[in-house]
Write a sequence for this structure.
């Protein structure tokens, strides 16, 4: 490493941003202490939510405070937390401008601004539907609505893809079934699941598990339903394909897009996601800039596990670049999304770029593994569980094939229109 | 077909389920009646998925052509709210 101070700026203090900052602070402790490296973490909020907790808030009545910690309690010594939202990311000037007017120059940038669930993108959705993707308070509204729901039709709809946590709409249907079973009113409640996909879960092997369970539990599935609009006055939801269903309570996963700062900086695709190399996690065509987690165009699940595994690769690659060393790492696309299927059972949707999910059966062990994640999340953010994760996840990264330049072609932006993949 | 109808090519090669069908739906969302969408896909499930969608939704499957290493699936938007 040269004597000149190297500045790392991380934008977004959620799952991936916080973990990357902590990894760098732990691996570069001496350099930070010696003034050779700085790690600045730029965030919007002082409070850090554990987003998977939204399901428990919505369907099991957990209080939102249970799943929130102060960001300052989560960061390691050596990380400078700047609570001042970024308003512009300038690749050519290599700097980040913040709302208060600061300019933060960087040698290495990590974009970890996540995805935004936005009901306003579908006509009538904000007024007509509740959801558990826009935070703890909105999730709590679902729970409150369930308390007074005596009977009728509950529609669970996926109103846009990609969205955070692909299994979460299926989980919502399973958890609703369980809620009304326990209350003894399941017979008075019809649960209807509307999905744009060809089957109840997009990956076929996972659908093999979900479909018969939905059938057994009387959860009605409508496939190829691309939500067009909602009429809150008539209590009706319409698809682009021309179907319509009545509802008494509508719970919908809103369409998602990238963060405003990505859109306003002109560095995203048409949905505000950042074109990113699926292996090295470098922003396509930009020196020293990386992107992780929900903010990228990479077509893997928008999930915390993915953000976490990508953070490890990025921290490694930044240090390798600082040392002008070869030996960059590439992420192998490993996903591992838990799905609670009711009655204390769960499955994991696991895959990599090259190996799709395989057949499996729901188990109690998987359910408790999922539940335990809520407890270990805060510790995991500090980097203290990496050895355990290495054993659990197996190989998730491999040596990069050395390239002179950052890779020019991002793989398969999910929202490809207007992006690289539209021929 | 009027001259304002658009032809859009969506390249989903290298992307696996639900990538191709999701890409098709994005194009469908912004399409007008009469527009033609060509989906290029390496995912073997894409042919059956798109065929099933056209059958259910009433949109027209113009054709599926096996190119070298991928399929070219052409759809005309004939049903949209
Ligand atoms: C209901 C639900 C259930 C889920 N269940 C699971 C699960 O079981 N397993 C799993 O792995 N994942 C799950 N997830 C997904 C997981 O929470 C996210 O994928 C993960 O948080 C992504 O991490 P990230 O760092 O990319 O984004 P986030 O954690 O969302 O962080 C993004 C951060 O960027 C900040 N930001 C945005 N714009 C700016 C700006 N201009 N300046 C500064 N900061 C900015 C935001 O405020 C936020 O703090 C679930 C999500 C939901 C909603």
């Amino acid at each position: 490493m040269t004597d000149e101070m190297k500045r790392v700026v991380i934008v977004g203090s959620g799952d991936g941003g916080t973990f990357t900052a902590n990894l760098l602070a732990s691996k570069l402790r001496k350099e930070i202490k010696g003034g050779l490296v700085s790690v600045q973490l730029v965030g919007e909020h002082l409070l850090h939510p554990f987003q998977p907790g939204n399901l428990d808030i919505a369907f099991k009545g957990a209080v939102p405070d249970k799943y929130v910690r102060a960001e300052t309690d989560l960061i390691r010594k050596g990380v400078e937390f700047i609570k001042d939202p970024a308003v512009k990311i300038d690749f050519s000037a290599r700097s980040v401008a913040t709302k208060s007017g600061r300019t933060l120059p960087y040698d290495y940038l990590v974009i970890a601004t996540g995805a935004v669930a936005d009901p306003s993108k579908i006509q009538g959705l904000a007024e007509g539907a509740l959801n558990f993707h826009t935070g703890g308070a909105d999730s709590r509204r679902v729970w409150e609505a369930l308390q007074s729901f005596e009977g009728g039709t509950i529609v669970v709809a996926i109103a846009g893809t990609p969205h955070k946590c692909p299994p979460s709409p299926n989980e919502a249907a399973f958890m609703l079934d369980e809620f009304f079973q326990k209350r003894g009113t399941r017979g008075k409640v019809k649960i209807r699941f509307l999905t744009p996909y060809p089957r109840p879960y997009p990956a076929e092997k996972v659908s093999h598990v979900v479909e018969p369970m939905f059938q057994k539990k009387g959860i009605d599935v409508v496939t190829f339903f691309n939500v067009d609009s909602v009429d809150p006055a008539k209590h009706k939801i319409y698809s682009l394909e021309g179907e319509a269903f009545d509802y008494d309570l509508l719970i919908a996963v809103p369409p998602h897009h990238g963060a405003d700062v990505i859109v306003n900086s002109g560095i995203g695709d048409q949905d505000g996601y950042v074109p990113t190399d699926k292996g090295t996690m470098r922003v396509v065509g930009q020196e020293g800039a990386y992107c992780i987690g929900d903010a990228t165009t990479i077509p893997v699940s928008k999930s915390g596990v993915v953000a976490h595994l990508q953070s490890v690769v990025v921290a490694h690659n930044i240090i390798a670049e600082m040392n002008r060393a070869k030996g960059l790492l590439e992420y192998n696309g490993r996903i591992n999304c838990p799905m609670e299927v009711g009655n204390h059972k769960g499955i994991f949707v696991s895959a990599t770029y090259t190996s799709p999910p395989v057949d499996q059966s729901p188990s109690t062990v998987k359910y408790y593994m999922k539940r335990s994640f809520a407890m270990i999340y805060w510790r995991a953010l500090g980097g203290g569980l990496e050895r355990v994760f290495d054993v659990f996840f197996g190989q998730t990264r491999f040596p990069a094939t050395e390239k002179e330049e950052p890779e020019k072609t991002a793989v398969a932006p999910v929202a490809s229109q207007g992006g690289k993949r539209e021929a | 077909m009027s001259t304002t109808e658009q032809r859009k090519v969506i390249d989903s090669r290298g992307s696996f389920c639900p990538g191709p069908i999701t890409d098709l739906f994005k194009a469908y969302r912004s399409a007008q009646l009469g527009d033609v969408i060509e989906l290029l896909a390496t995912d073997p499930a894409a042919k059956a998925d798109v065929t099933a969608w056209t059958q259910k939704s009433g949109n027209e499957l113009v054709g599926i052509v096996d190119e070298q290493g991928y399929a070219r699936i052409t759809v005309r938007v004939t049903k949209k709210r």
Q: What stands out?
A: Residues 45-57 of chain B form the longest helix (13 residues). Chain B has two helices and four strands. Helices of chain B lie at 19-30, 45-57.
